[in-house]
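Sample pair:
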Amino acid sequence: MLTGMLSMAHPFFMSVIDINHNPKEASLEISVRVFSDDLEKTLQQYSKQKINILSPGDKAVIEKNLQAYMTDHLKLTVNGKPVRFSLVGYEQQMESTWCYFEIDKQPVVNQVGIDCSLLYDYETKQVNIVHVKSKGVQKTYKLDYPKRDISFSF
């Protein structure tokens, strides 16, 4: 009975990744929304440290681990060239954690390639929904485990 109740409490595993080109700032703004408990367990596995996202003792430790994990599991190319993003911050919103990243010096975005394996190491039922917006056009794709690659052209 307890197993049934636990599976009902969290029946699906998903993240939402929004990538928006901001031509005025010549940057790509990235937000990643993940269930907090899944992210916490994944970061603990990944870093081998005790992680408490809801009540962090040291926010810098969480930020360091978030940056490292996301860098390893979300790889981007812009106009055919690999790019690196930096963590701007994160926040809690109900049962989710929003992580914010930015890529500078991107005046024109014609193509975005994504290699995403977020939380695949934690749950094989993971789904990653990817939204990319450039030149006023938004495109969306759903990556179901084990699919991890997608490319968008604008």
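Residues 59-73 form the longest helix (15 residues).
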